[in-house]
Amino acid sequence: MNQLLSTPAKIELRHVTHLYVSTSRAFMAVRDINLRVEEGEFICLVGPSGCGKTTLLSLIAGLEKPTAGKVLIEGKPVLGSSRQVGYMLQQDYLFNWRTIEENVFLGLDIQGIRNRETEDFALHLLDEMELADVRRAYPAQLSGGMRQRVALVRTLACQPDVLLLDEPFSALDYQTKLKLEDLIFSALRRHKKTAILVTHDLSESIAMGDRIYILARNPGRISSEVAVPSEIRDAIPFDARNIPGFQDLFHQVWKEMEVVSDAAKGN
Ligand SMILES: Nc1ncnc2c1ncn2[C@@H]1O[C@H](COP(=O)(O)OP(=O)(O)OP(=O)(O)O)[C@@H](O)[C@H]1O
């Protein structure tokens, strides 16, 4: 038990407060955030717009430095961006003049790790994501869902331990989104990644997450934490939605969201 307690978390935020400071004002985006993500866990962050979800990802990715408190990965302070952390955004940022394969290899170039072995791994991931047939196509020839899969392959090809996913499905149609949830969920499980997903879709957070943090705003803070039961966790997201207990959990998270949303409106 003591040994378990002393093991550093994969990701830990200790009393993290962050202010955005400009010449005219300082704005407190998040206050006193404490969270712990264990290796291999899939965590979802939900909450009203402006509660600091993206700020938390930026702090974990080392793109922002906390004003107070500590951001730790495997017990070590995050000092800047690193290969250990992959960040995938809503927009895919593919280069239209490069083929799919060259877009994926670009990530390896930027990290300075492009070689035969890493290229082969990237091609293997393209295959896993059902993109092998389009490796020589250009982004403009692909659907939105395919482009997001390419963006995921580009991120995974650099072999980060931690994946930060900022609303990666929000621009997609419903059917594509459900299919992509299953593909990404399975890929992250297979490759044993630790992941944090920001989403506005409560059903998605329950279908994909092991745990959900619900945030309130002004300032951004953790309002509550919900553990997803194992029978839902173990199913792929599409099937998870049909498991008894899913709807009850949805109503629980919905109610908690209503509390933080009403508080944000000052009701
Ligand atoms: N660079 C910045 N400078 C000043 N304020 C910022 C900056 N980035 C974010 N903020 C503010 O910090 C707060 C938290 O923003 P953040 O983007 O983290 O919220 P969010 O929960 O991700 O929102 P959304 O759900 O709308 O994407 C917001 O009030 C936002 O306006």
List the main descriptive attributes of the protein structure presented here.
alpha/beta; 10 helices; 267 residues; Rossmann fold; globular; binds adenosine-5'-triphosphate
CATH architecture: 3-Layer(aba) Sandwich
Q: Provide the succession of SSEs.
A: HEEEHEEEHHHEHEHEEHHH
CATH class: Alpha Beta
Care to count the β-strands? 10
CATH superfamily: P-loop containing nucleotide triphosphate hydrolases
Task: Outline the low-pLDDT stretches.
Answer: none
Instruction: Measure the end-to-end span.
Output: 44 Å
pLDDT averaged over residues: 91
When the domains are counted, the total is 1
Largest sheet, spatial ordering of strands: 6-7-8-3-9-10
Fraction of helical residues: 25-40%
> By helix and strand content, what is the structural category?
alpha/beta
Structure description:
InterPro entries: AAA+_ATPase, ABC_transporter-like_ATP-bd, ABC_transporter-like_CS, ABC_transporter_ATP-bind, P-loop_NTPase. GO terms for molecular function: ATP binding. Keywords: ATP-binding, Nucleotide-binding, Transport. It comes from Brevibacillus ruminantium. Pfam families: ABC_tran. This protein has 267 residues and is an alpha/beta fold. It has a single domain (2-84, 160-265), classed as Rossmann fold. It is built from ten helices and ten strands. The chain has helices at residues 2-6, 53-60, 100-111, 116-128, 144-157, 174-190, 202-208, 230-233, 237-240, 246-265; strands spanning 11-21, 26-37, 42-46, 68-73, 76-77, 85-88, 162-166, 194-198, 211-216, 221-227. The strands form two sheets. A six-stranded mixed β-sheet has the order 6-7-8-3-9-10, sandwiched between helices. The protein is globular, with a radius of gyration of 19 Å. The termini are far apart. 37% of the residues are buried. Adenosine-5'-triphosphate binds at residues 20, 27, 29, 47, 49-55, 220.
